[in-house]
Amino acid sequence: MDDFLDKLPQMDLMRSEKMTLVQLIIPVESAHRSVTYLGELGLLQFRDLNADKSPFQRTFATQVKRCGEMSRKLRFFKDQIDKAGLVCLPRHELEPDIELGDLERQLADHEHEVLEMNSNSEKLLQTYNELLEFKIVLQKASGFLVSSNAHAIGDETELHESTYSNNGFIESASLLEQEMRPEPLNQSGLRFISGIINKDKLLRFERMLFRATRGNMLFNQTPSDEEIMDPSTSEMVEKIVFVVFFSGEQARTKILKICEAFGANCYPVPEDTTKQMQLTREVLSRLSDLEATLDAGTRHRNNALNAVGYSLTKWMSTVRREKAVYDTLNMLNFDVTKKCLVGEGWCPTFAKTQIHEVLQRATSDSNSQVGVIFHVMHAVESPPTYFRTNKLTNAFQEIIDAYGVARYEEANPAVYSVVTYPFLFAVMFGDWGHGLCLLLGALYLLAREKKLSKQKLGSFMEMLFGGRYVILLMALFSIYCGLIYNEFFSVPFHIFGGSAYKCRDTTCSDAYTAGLVKYRDPYPFGVDPSWRGSRSELPYLNSLKMKMSILLGIAQMNLGLILSFFNARFFGSSLDIRYQFIPQMIFLNSLFGYLSLLIIIKWCTGSQADLYHVMIYMFLSPTEELGENELFWGQRPLQILLLLMAFIAVPWMLFPKPFALRKIHMERFQGRTYGLLGTSEVDLDVEPDSARSHQEEEFNFSEIFVHQLIHSIEFVLGSVSNTASYLRLWALSLAHSELSTVFYEKVLLLAWGYENILIRLIGVVVFAFATAFILLMMETLSAFLHALRLHWVEFMGKFFHGDGYKFVPFSFALISDDDE
User: Do 424 and 783 contact (CB within 8 A), yes or no?
Assistant: First the structure.
């Protein structure tokens, strides 16, 4: 048997790649280029040899800080380009690679230029908003001040017509500084303050003015006809023009303070109509000049941002790569001479030749007189886990890794999940009409694969696109299981020939009560369509799907136990084979494997035996005669033998392994003690911090025994619960079928029974929405999660440890846009 197993292929996909711990001694002059070339290769995972140092104590902390500052500037440019609404496509012609120092100087110059233009633009925009508010106040407040003047309406019309008419620019001081002066006192001693305020503050502002002046004021307001941009938020806000009439210097002081507190801008409005017109012309002239200036500034700023935007993508990639290189260099140690860097890392065994060639090329390109020393080290700790995947297997590997990363060279469940996962999903989702809908969605994702892979997708769409091949296989298996169930949106079809049954009467109107008669050979593939609507439909499908679920569950759990045997054999653990695998196989198959055998025999013979009665009384009365429940000769003695084997398997799992481990430990410990006396040279070479020495010192028999006790109890109870857990295949398949039937009969057929076109159309729409959102979305998610549970717990729990760590090589291809 061992010779046969040794001749089997290595099953590279089943186990992770063999890893090698290597050491690099790199001269300082070629260190940067060597790490860069290794990042392009992407097959070496560096170990952090400076884990005890903070990021600021590391050798290349200054370079990392410089790269971080350049990343900040590049993000600033990107935000400015997005804010300006520019679309800067990278140049198609090849640009020469730029040195990091030159790039740093260019970015500093561009940032200074953009910041200066932003500052000037903000000042001009603030002045423009003030003048715009002044214009509105002049336009609206004049109606309160000179309402008796017959020319007020004409002046306002002239103001509207002359807006934006002057395109010149006048260099002068702020108009507000020139015009802000004490209001003139009229003959009655009545004074006024005019200004503008946000609409949402108006009510509180007016209430505060009334309280501060004790009601000795007159408040007039009118809405502005246009929205004004708020400089702080860059949003258009609605404002209200107000004029407050009062008397006395004390009231004026209070009103000005309240205006300042509420953010109201006050503007002087002369009472003389001539001065109003003169002031209006000056405001309009300056507004026109500022508009032209702002437009020119915006064009200049956009040109500067476009110049940066053409190279922005390349620069961001360059900075990310340089930062990753210096972060990796910080994981290396300087030797005592400070002339070379020492690094350690893991690489796949097949990649040693490629890494050696890359390091030789880096030495040659950097004109270094000393080459990089590359040699293999002896590893004490467990290596990382690395599986080579493709577009099809990567999604399944991610599903397995979500539960836990496989231990180094442990059997990989993803290999089997490529088939078992979509198949168990399809058992719960079996309907070839719904499967075709899933297939169309998967084909759409595959057809647009190249385009979607280059786009930045949302979280939900990214999840669907990443699992496109999973959806494809789920759809294909759903079509297959749907053909077996003979359901197309819950409707059966005579695809593979005629039915094996016919009605007792001339019509099938009595089929619900009188039943069906078999008159020819069985339907060649899947469920006979005549079961649909018959009196025996639900009992028949329940029995079929329940027994099928048990068979599939026992088969998958046995596969998990067989993989545990291959794991134990690969790692050379004969104890796990003798005291774990064998008793577990005996216990599981003595009970539930026997149940599966009874199901198959019952299907083949057409017996009417009650399997519930057989299994229950196998425990309660094993010696009792089976009577009509006997399926084959010698069944009762076989049941007694299987029951005894199951009872023997429990202590077999529990007791031998802890005592065997204790015996091995004692023999090893004694042999090592006596060996020190005669062969001290050999044993002194053993590293004091090796894993073996820790294992010997930390051996605790009580802990091992308790762990084995828990493992044994968990397996015995889990054999029952896991088998019952596979009945979810039956339950969800039945629920999916019944929901489809309800939507088809109670929605579509019911609406189609009316002659009204509108009712039929509503029925079709409701049926389509119910199918899409409930059956194709919610039921898909439900079946997906249940299949995930069956793999994570029932299948992988039999052999999978999942306590490894993933191989994460230093690779530029793995650096995302969010890594800064």
Answer: no
CA distance 711 to 705: 10
Check if the beta carbon of residue 213 is closer than 8 Å to that of residue 256: no
pLDDT at 327 over 80: yes
Token pair for residue 473? Answer: 């296989």
CA distances from 793 to 574, 680, 789, 796 (A): 25, 49, 6, 6
- Nearest in space to 237 (alpha carbons), one of 257, 223, 249: 223
Q: Can you tell me the distance from the alpha carbon of 69 to that of 816, in angstroms, rounded to the nearest whole number?
A: 18
Q: Which of 529, 506, 306, 424 is nearest to 795 (CA)?
A: 424
User: Of the candidates 272, 279, 287, which has an alpha carbon nearest to the alpha carbon of residue 152?
Assistant: 272
User: What average pLDDT does the segment 147-158 reach?
Assistant: 40
Q: How far apart are CA 442 and CA 451, in angstroms?
A: 15
pLDDT at 332: 92
Rounded Cα–Cα distance for residues 161 and 277 (Å): 13
Query: Within 517-630, where are the H helices?
Result: 537-570, 574-576, 582-588, 594-605, 611-620
Helices (H), 146-239: 152-161, 175-179, 202-212
How many of the other CB atoms lie within 10 Å of CB of 747?
20
d(CA 110, CA 597): 78
Question: What pTM value is reported for the model?
Answer: 0.78
The most confident of the ranges 281-290, 625-634, 682-691 is: 281-290
Residues 428 and 478 sit within 8 Å (Cβ to Cβ): no
Neighbouring C-beta atoms of residue 799, cutoff 10 Å: 20
Tell me how far apart the alpha carbons of residues 248 and 246 are, in angstroms, rounded to a whole number.
7
Q: State what percent of residues in the chain have pLDDT above 70.
A: 85
Question: Strand 333-334 vs strand 228-230: parallel, antiparallel, or unpaired?
Answer: unpaired
pLDDT of residue 187 exceeding 70:
no
Angle, vertex CA 402, rays to CA 397 and CA 404, nearest 5: 90
Give me the mean pLDDT over the 128-147 stretch.
Answer: 80
Asked whether residue 507 carries a pLDDT value surpassing 60, the answer given is no
Reported as a pLDDT band with limits 50, 70 and 90, residue 96 is low
Mean per-residue pLDDT over the chain, rounded: 84
Contact (CB, 8 A) for 558 and 593: yes
What token pair was written down for 132? 């715009």
C-alpha to C-alpha distance for 352 and 450, rounded to whole angstroms = 32
The whole-angstrom separation of Cα 390 and Cα 239 is 61
The rounded distance, in Å, linking the Cα atoms of 341 and 713 is: 53
pLDDT in tens, 372-417: 889 999 888 899 999 999 899 999 999 999 999 999 999 999 999 9
Structure confidence at residue 510 (pLDDT): 52
In angstroms, rounded to a whole number, what is the distance separating the alpha carbons of residues 594 and 591?
Answer: 5
Distance CA 45, CA 58 (A): 19
- Taking only Cα atoms into account, the Rg of the chain, rounded to an integer number of angstroms, comes to 41
Q: Whole-angstrom Cα distance, residue 719 to residue 724?
A: 9
SS (H, E, C) 451-518: HHHCCCCCHHHHHHHHCHHHHHHHHHHHHHHHHHHCCECCECCCCCCCCCEEECCCCHHHHHHHCEEE
- Nearest Cα neighbor of 592 from 564, 567, 614 is 614
Residue 117: HSE in the Cβ half-sphere, 13 Å Cα cutoff: 20
Burial of 236 (0-12, 13-18, 19+ CB in 10 A): exposed
Encoding tokens for residue 778?
């919610």
Question: How many residues are given for the chain?
Answer: 820
Please check whether residue 291 is in contact with residue 128, taking contact to mean a CB–CB distance below 8 angstroms: yes
DSSP state letter for 519? -
d(CA 820, CA 48): 19
Instruction: State the pLDDT at residue 169.
Output: 35
